[in-house]
Amino acid sequence: MTLAVVKLLDGSSKTIAIGEDTKCQDLVSLLADKLDLGGAVANFAIYVQSGSVETHVRPDELPAEIMKSWKATDTFVFKKRLHFSEDASAASTDDSLANLMYVQARDDIIHGRISTTVAQATECAGIAMQATYGDFNQNRHVVGFLAKHIAEFVPAAHLKAKRVPDWEDAIYMEHEKHKGLDEVAAQRKFIEVAAELPGYGATVFPAKCKSGVVKRNGKKALIEASAKGVGLLDVTSRTEWAAWGTNELAGSPTVNKTMLTLHTAGEGRDPVFEVPGVGADVARLIEEYVANSPAVEKAVEADKTEEVAEPVNVAAVEEVTVEQEVAAEE
Fold this sequence. Notes:
Acyl-CoA Binding Protein; Ubiquitin-like (UB roll); PH-domain like; alpha+beta; 10 helices; seven-stranded antiparallel beta sheet; 12 strands; 37% helix
């Protein structure tokens, strides 16, 4: 047996005993049991964190095998991979899920993966104060209380917008508005607010437009994958240049060495992007969102009802896609 240490985004970790043949999907299930996560586990995944880079571990990969070749500082990270509109409803009755979603949303805001204005960042910081410290206490929560921890509440991109004492005053004012909320209720409030912010529930990858995107070819960009589909964003402003809904994507993306091709249902040329090192992860994530999208599910149900077509073998499609990628890289 091997002991696998899996880090959570709140800084804590869980140690799980695994065998040589334990698959990643089994490790996710074992973690879910420890965290009392229940049915929400389907949308969570394991990542390998190596420095500042996180790589998704496929469900069929063997964690024990991965651990044999990683660096001393590498670690497993457990977090939500897929985000859907019904998540908030599930979190309203599942305290463990609410905690994990809160911690991840807070981490995404602090690190700029979810975009905020100064006002929005202040609101989120005030709710986070309520979740962390309970009700505002004028004798305790004074200027200086957050001085050493301000970066845990305010996104780095906004820190220089105010002096630390001014940030504290603004956060405390927001904190007072949420008096009476217990820890879990405050976490749910945080999720509710974060869910309305740009970037919530999306995963972003660096890319370069190669072809198929009018006026953007040759430019660096960000590919944003979410339940809505795929977005192409400006690197600096995160303004959306183009978007393809899940119902506009025809089949799985194709990966050829460092190139990713989106197959779209329209008549135009399929867009091609350069995505060094992350092509397989981008393709798998888009596949998962498309496979779980309401539009696809309705189409599948319609096919079953009308008995017009055979069910799609999703596992076979994913297998072929991965094999193609490996063959291309060789």
